[in-house]
Known about the structure:
heterodimer, A: alpha+beta, GMP Synthetase, Chain A, domain 3, 2 domains, three-stranded mixed sheet, three-stranded antiparallel sheet, 6 strands, about 25% helix, B: mainly alpha, Ferritin, globular
Amino acid sequence: MSAPTATGSDVRALAASVTDPSTGSGQARVRALASSVTDPEMPMLTLEDLGVLRDVAVEDDGRVVVTITPTYSGCPAMATMRDDLVHALHDAGHARVEVRVSLHPAWSSDWITERGRQALRDHGLSVPGPAPRHDGPVPLTLLPVRRDLTCPRCGSDAVALTSEFGATACKAMYRCTACAEPFEHVKEI
Amino acid sequence: MSDDHESVYDGLLGGDDTQWAFGTSFEDPLAGVDTTVPEGVDAGALAAYCLMLGDDALVHSHRLSQWASNAPDLEEDIALANVALDLLGQARLLLARAAAADPGLVPALPEGSPVPSEDALAFFRDEAAFRNVRLAEQENGDFAATVVRLLLLSTHRLALLQRLAASTDQVLAAIAAKGVKELTYHRDHAARWFLTLAQGTEESRRRLLAGLALVWPLRAELARTHPVERLVAEQGVGVDPATVTDEVDVLLEQVFSVSGVERPGLPATGTVAGGAGREGRHSEAMGRLLAEMQVVARAHPTGLW
């Protein structure tokens, strides 16, 4: 598991903060720390970029309360995310850390930030389009899911779906018929 | 390491868990979630209802996971494992919600056992305490039968969860709203396979029709309203399953018609002494499924995973 890395903005937030966790700048420092923790399966993304990190608060008694929203109901990475958040905050001197779950609203791939999308592209992954929305009964889709994608390596739009399901719940597998490279696509949900 | 060196494993527990990818403690899928039962809602009925929805997901998930390394191709192994994982996640949330609403449902474990209530419900209940429909527990059999079962269960569950997203129980509403997104691609995946097998070769069509004939009679149980379901529907937290049958039928008709398959006219599987899965009366397959699913947890009731 890779250790959380601090980004430039985290370093600036750290420099601007004071050590008293009850002050506003302490909140910013804790927020920056939690925001730098990365996803265990897609370590190019922070939990903030993934949209999983919903809230970070320092309570009056010094407890740090972090709120996260699961990506998929059964995503096994949630336990690791929780442990990584606790470890990162413990290592920074916060003895009492509580990770809470927020189930509503449900996570959507629309919550992946622009910085997160760029990080995915930079690492050869295809980014999700807008998530589908439905009113009334969800219509049946009998044809393979259609997406207008381009190969994240060569930019060609001559891509073919290999499998709608991949190594993690959030990804589909594609191949590019122009450069012949396989790639993963983060699904719209 | 312990001082007396009695076991090489002694030193593995304790400390700050940093050597483990997943730690050595259980995590609560509802950590920090407000599980107060809404006013005017019968907590016992809400819990029993969450067990029904949770057991359907848990047992079907277990069956689907048995396809790992046995499916027709690697992509399908992964697809069915993904679907099973989604259902397992829904089951964890629903069993935890049931336990929070009515702690009296949770089986007693030895003193000092760290097993959380969702695991106690999954691994330490006997067969008669499970509330899943019998359709979910059937042996996988041929791949075509698994496809038909997934189509029937996911079409029904999707229609239920869509309505449950408006439940007055905020926890159940949130679990359902999340589940709708997942059930949509479960159902569509099953429907594509149904069409592919029906319009594939003579052999694939023969197997699909055989699977349909095998699975169809158990479908009626999905729409059979249990008194608990009627009560929670009246209280605004649940959905009477009989109210979704029209919508489910329209969707199934679309799949049948494009696949060139007649809707079966087979009679429904009978009840046992007037009861079925929702009353804890299961088929022979259920005992073997539970034996496999529960054996490790039951052998180590004080174990940490």
